[in-house]
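lol ok so funny story. i was supposed to be doing the assay writeup but got distracted and ended up predicting the structure for this chain instead. priorities right. anyway since i did it might as well share w the group, maybe its usefull for someone
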Amino acid sequence: MELVSAIRELIAEHSGFRWMRERLLLQIFVALGGIIPVAAGAAGIFFGPDFVDATVGMAADSHFRYLSGLLLGLGLGFWSTIPRIEANGTRFRLLTFAVVIGGLGRLFSLAAIGLPSVGMLGALAMELGVTPLLCFWQWRISRKSSLTAPADRRIRPRQT
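and the output, tada:
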């Protein structure tokens, strides 16, 4: 009997370490993925439409810089989930929803106007592919944290 309980304890310990390793990998991927919207958003704010080699009027320039600010905010929002990524599911899903809606707008443009540049196709892949996959991964980590994390690292429901 003691052997069985020792094996169970070893398995539980290993599961916790695996969970922490997977959590760390997700944090790294979110940190790296966040570089794109933060850098592109900041560049769009400071360089305006010149950032994408476009010449537009004042109203379109203002709109471009505003949307670049939103992009920067999305990247910073994703970065804000990193420290306790397993506990930030609601924020992560809301940010993912905003990114996917933007990606659907870009997809509509592709259907209406035609094939965009390679950079825009890469952005589309991030918006409709990578970001939803990261969101699913975050959900898995969140779920595992309440099942397999060491007791002192488990997510506890708020007391109301």
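The mean pLDDT is 87. The chain has one domain: 2-150.
back to the writeup now i swear
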